[in-house]
Amino acid sequence: MLKMMMRNIAAASSFYCSSRRWRGMPCLLSNSTVVVFANDYFAFLHSQPSKPIKSTRTQLEQPVINSLKITTVQDAFIVFDRMLQMRPPPSVVRFDQILGQVAKLKHYSAVISLYNQMDVSGIGPDVCTLNVLINCYFHLDQMGFSLSVLGKFFKVGLEPNVITFTTLINGFLLKNRMAEAAGIFNKMIAEGNCQPDVVTFSTLVKGFCMKGNNSAAIQLLRKMEEGARKPNLVVYNTIIDSLCKDTLVDDALNLFSEMMCKGIASDVITYTSLIHGVCKLGKWKEAIRLLNEMVSKNILPDVCTFNVLVDALCKEGMVGEAEVVVEVMVQRDIEPNTVTYNSLMDGYCLRGEIGKAQNVFELMLSKGSMVNVVSYSTLINGYCKHKRIDEAMMLFLDMSHKGLVADTITYNTLLDGFGKAGRIQDAQKLFSKMQACGQHPNAQTYSILLDGLCKNRQLSRAMQLFGEMEAKKLDINIVIYNILIEGLCIAGKIESARDLFCGLSSKGLQPNVRTCTIMISGLCFAGLTSEAENLLIQMEEKGCSPDGWTFNTIIRGFIHNKQTSRAMVLIQTMVEKGFSADASTMLLIVNLLSKDEVDPALLPLIKKSLSN
DNA sequence: TTAGGGTTAG
């Protein structure tokens, strides 16, 4: 299967080459154009004017400004400076172009300071300038400033347009503020003078997808079909990707067929999402089919498509095969990027081959500025998972030397490492440092800390932290309750565990299979086997069916409580449900057999429970 | 002729 996949990747890539040859002429033209402008641009950037440029726009300057391609923030500042010195200054559109390009490079604070320079020089903004500004403030997490730009519109007599409102909607959605986003959308519809366009709709569709509400996204798609703004490729891609991420690949494929029936052509993003979805489910054959299909439609796999394959292979433990895919990429002129190498590093770490991961890391360092915060977190995770926490900390300290800032995931990784290594004090120190550095702990941070405290028998500190979470009105999810209930059970505080468990529904939370199994384990540990069995029955009734782990837990509980015959009945039920005994249950059963504590009539059943 | 939406890694 894998060899077939490699052949397909190779086939896709050779198509890429011939396809490029086929497109030779336009490619040559555009390259030469780039060269011409690059020369002018270089000259423009590095010419040192002795005095401000006066008079007319020269023959050289105007086309250069028109075609400028900004690749670094430094260039943007140089160009901006030159433009501000020109008399008369270039039109605001030229300034907008630079701001837009810097924003695309994600240097949002640079955009703000460039705008301030414009403002000081008396270059008045237009609608486009202010729209870029709103977007930048949202990305910088400065929502207040974003909204204050709206005031600027009125001050300078400009009317916000559909892009302004869509940018605001997008900003609110990025900050998880669905209500405000929906408010703007509804207002747009109600007031009638600035109707949402297809981008506004697709932004909202993305918002639903981000919230995990695929059905609302699909409902909006259906609404679009009825109205004037018909759904386009971006809308379909957004939903297809979301369905794939939720492993609802069949639904994604149905939507994909629907899109094709409507004559909307798919692109590399559609296929990358679909291939990602099927790879996540281990459906390699389907991945190959899709890869073949895209190539047959002249849609060429790009670096993201290849990265999906590399990552999926790495997660399956097939790093060697992933390396082959990378070789194919290189052969076919698709340069592996940071994402590619990070996936490889993670693959090596998963196999415990930290040295090889370190080699990939060094390779990235040797190639220049390829290493990012994900690279560090990946390697830190590798060291932590293999109990090499001090080396992980060395890497963490090295990050700042590279100008990189550890994020919540980096801290979570290290906190987990400290917790699993039993170094709770170090974890707590790091937790304080994290907050002092302005990194916000998320639900996962708290789960990691609580888990560390519970597993290291520091239940009172865990309960104190839980209290702090409640006081801060943080979103406490079922995972956090599971950790606490388990901690209480292990500490023998079954009453408190039961209280938390019974109080879940009042908090609007539904216990899951894990919650119930933890509770069953705790009840058995406390000798309350009947209550445990009642809970098992209730699970079925409440539509939270016990799994193999639940059955193994309760069976072990009964054996430990010397209720062998009851355990045998449960083994019977487990076998009927298609589950089998795991290693620890098996050990207990073998032990019973060796002591002749099992009715010989039950031997066929036991054999079955072991062989499922 | 500039601004807003869709794909990959921890």
From TrEMBL:
<dbReference type="Pfam" id="PF01535">
    <property type="entry name" value="PPR"/>
</dbReference>
<feature type="repeat" description="PPR">
    <location>
        <begin position="197"/>
        <end position="231"/>
    </location>
</feature>
<dbReference type="Pfam" id="PF12854">
    <property type="entry name" value="PPR_1"/>
</dbReference>
<feature type="repeat" description="PPR">
    <location>
        <begin position="161"/>
        <end position="195"/>
    </location>
</feature>
<protein>
    <recommendedName>
        <fullName>Tetratricopeptide repeat-like superfamily protein</fullName>
    </recommendedName>
</protein>
<dbReference type="InterPro" id="IPR011990">
    <property type="entry name" value="TPR-like_helical_dom_sf"/>
</dbReference>
<feature type="repeat" description="PPR">
    <location>
        <begin position="477"/>
        <end position="511"/>
    </location>
</feature>
<comment type="similarity">
    <text>Belongs to the PPR family. P subfamily.</text>
</comment>
<keyword id="KW-0677">Repeat</keyword>
<feature type="repeat" description="PPR">
    <location>
        <begin position="547"/>
        <end position="581"/>
    </location>
</feature>
<dbReference type="InterPro" id="IPR002885">
    <property type="entry name" value="PPR_rpt"/>
</dbReference>
<feature type="repeat" description="PPR">
    <location>
        <begin position="372"/>
        <end position="406"/>
    </location>
</feature>
<feature type="repeat" description="PPR">
    <location>
        <begin position="267"/>
        <end position="301"/>
    </location>
</feature>
<feature type="repeat" description="PPR">
    <location>
        <begin position="512"/>
        <end position="546"/>
    </location>
</feature>
<feature type="repeat" description="PPR">
    <location>
        <begin position="302"/>
        <end position="336"/>
    </location>
</feature>
<feature type="repeat" description="PPR">
    <location>
        <begin position="442"/>
        <end position="476"/>
    </location>
</feature>
<feature type="repeat" description="PPR">
    <location>
        <begin position="232"/>
        <end position="266"/>
    </location>
</feature>
<dbReference type="Pfam" id="PF13041">
    <property type="entry name" value="PPR_2"/>
</dbReference>
<feature type="repeat" description="PPR">
    <location>
        <begin position="337"/>
        <end position="371"/>
    </location>
</feature>
<feature type="repeat" description="PPR">
    <location>
        <begin position="407"/>
        <end position="441"/>
    </location>
</feature>
